[in-house]
Design a protein that fits this description.
Helices cover about 65% and strands about 15% of the residues. The protein is of the alpha+beta class. The chain has two domains: about 325 residues, Outer membrane efflux proteins (OEP), CATH 1.20.1600.10; about 35 residues, no CATH class. The strands form two sheets. The chain has a four-stranded antiparallel beta sheet, with no helix packed on it. The two termini are about 35 Å apart.
Length: about 450
């Protein structure tokens, strides 16, 4: 593993160590705490870290081929039936003519070998010049860099998903608080109506209308509470947090969030600094190395080989039939393809085409990244304006309800005016919640588009 890989792993470990284990009494969690815990426990990132280790081992495997390769061998045999060969009967022909046997066979058989044989040896092989193997080491280095970038890209995705789930939970929690404020108003009105009904100045039907509206509001609040709990469970799943443990998140600071969103709209953008573009450039590097591999296949290779062995044979491993002798050899081997049916040339041409296609993809990617950023920024600005507008409407609806309620108590307004004002406030609150939720999502999309998603927890 190279220095860059070690530094990234160290950074991830350092970032997550502060909140790797969150105590049960830690209180509401901030976005930074959730992100730190996620970077340590998210299952996707754990798997990616294993991918980095796997790439490092693959590089070691290839680099090991450049080192001397040493092997040992040995064997022992008992020849149950020895090899026999037929050969001309030269013994009879070599004898004096008077002693020759005219009936001797033309051929005779000779048994080869002895009953026992054994040997052991050591062999060494060293690559002296092998451009394909040298280039394979470069490809392994590039693959390790690509695995490293993949971890960073996945970390960006994990951070973005975690932030979305966290902010969604915050917004839902904020919505529940708004419902509590509306219910407090309904409780106050219900108490006034009940007191008026008891003394006979308020009709029962009017008091019942307040109770019906209150009951409907409580039902909507309960649905919002349930949605909030579901969102927390999704957040725990994304973080790798134990599902059977409760989790609390800090309350939403609307003013601080709007301030961060406004500053985000003012940041600069460079497509060349984005992770997708860096990964594409790394892919181009790998394509260039693959072309070099294709070229290297037509170049000569030189290998140095040496071996030494001892051979033993005899009817017994002792006595006069026992023999042993050494064998040794050193060789310099050269291999160079001369004609390969133009297949190697076609492979080089294909590599050239792949590089030209990658250059075209680079232009498309730059345009796509720039378009994605511009669209995300435009969407954020639009959603931010909607949030400001809906926030103003919510404040106006609250003032209208307060004035209408005061007028009703003074006998100037009727109950329908109060109920309509109350419904308008609830609708304005829901519109503000929806606008805020959309604005948060576009805020995260923009930070991901400009490559600053990991800075989302910075205050």
């Amino acid at each position: 593993m190279n220095i860059k890989s070690l530094l990234l792993l160290a950074a991830l470990a350092a970032a997550s160590s502060a909140y790797a284990q969150i105590p049960s009494d830690a209180g509401p969690l901030t976005l930074g705490q959730c992100l730190d815990y996620t970077l340590e426990h998210n299952a996707t990132l754990k798997k990616d870290k294993l991918g980095i280790e796997e790439a490092a081992q693959s590089k070691r495997e290839i680099a090991g081929s450049l080192l001397p390769q040493i092997s040992a061998s040995g064997s022992m045999s008992y020849n149950i039936q020895k090899t026999a060969i037929a050969m001309p009967n030269f013994v009879n022909s070599m004898m004096p003519e008077a002693m020759r046997d005219p009936n001797a066979p033309k051929y005779m058989t000779v048994t080869m070998g002895m009953d026992l044989s054994a040997n052991w040896g050591v062999a060494l092989s060293q690559q002296l010049l092998n451009f394909s193997l040298f280039n394979a080491v470069g490809i392994a280095n590039a693959a390790e860099e690509m695995a490293q970038m993949g971890v960073e890209a996945d970390a960006d995705d994990v951070v973005a998903k975690t932030a979305i789930l966290f902010y969604n939970a915050q917004v839902l929690q904020y919505a529940v608080n708004l419902f509590d404020e509306s219910l407090a108003v309904m409780d106050r009105m219900s108490s006034v109506m009940q007191a008026g009904k008891d003394v006979g100045i308020i009709r029962k039907v009017d008091a019942d209308r307040i109770e019906v509206n209150k009951s409907n509001l409580e039902t909507e609040k309960q649905s919002m509470v349930q949605a909030f709990e579901v969102q927390k469970n999704l957040l725990k799943l994304q973080m790798g947090f134990p599902m059977d443990s409760d989790i609390a998140i800090e309350a939403l600071d609307v003013d601080a969030l709007e301030s961060r969103i406004f500053l985000e709209c003012l940041q600069d953008f460079s497509a060349e600094e984005q992770m997708p573009f860096k990964m594409h450039k790394q892919q181009q590097t790998m394509l260039q190395l693959q072309r070099k591999s294709a070229v290297a296949e037509v170049l000569p290779t030189f290998t140095l080989s040496a071996n030494y062995s001892q051979n033993y044979m005899g009817d017994h491993f002792y006595g006069e039939t026992y023999h042993h002798f050494p064998v040794s050899m050193v060789s310099l081997n050269m291999r160079m393809p001369i004609f390969t049916g133009m297949s190697k040339n076609a492979k080089i041409k294909k590599a050239d085409i792949a590089l030209r296609k990658s250059q075209q993809d680079e232009e498309i990617l730059l345009q796509s990244l720039t378009m994605g950023y511009n669209n995300a920024r435009m969407q954020l600005e639009q959603n931010r304006s909607t949030v400001v507008s809906q926030k103003r409407n919510k404040a106006l609806a609250s003032d209208v309800l307060e004035v209408t309620e005061s007028n009703y108590n003074e006998g100037i307004a009727n109950l329908s005016d109060v109920l309509n004002a109350s419904s308008s406030l609830i609708q304005a609150q829901m519109n503000y919640i929806n606008a805020l939720n959309s604005c948060v999502k576009s805020y995260i999309d923009l930070k991901k588009a400009n490559g600053t998603i990991k800075e989302i927890n910075n205050r």
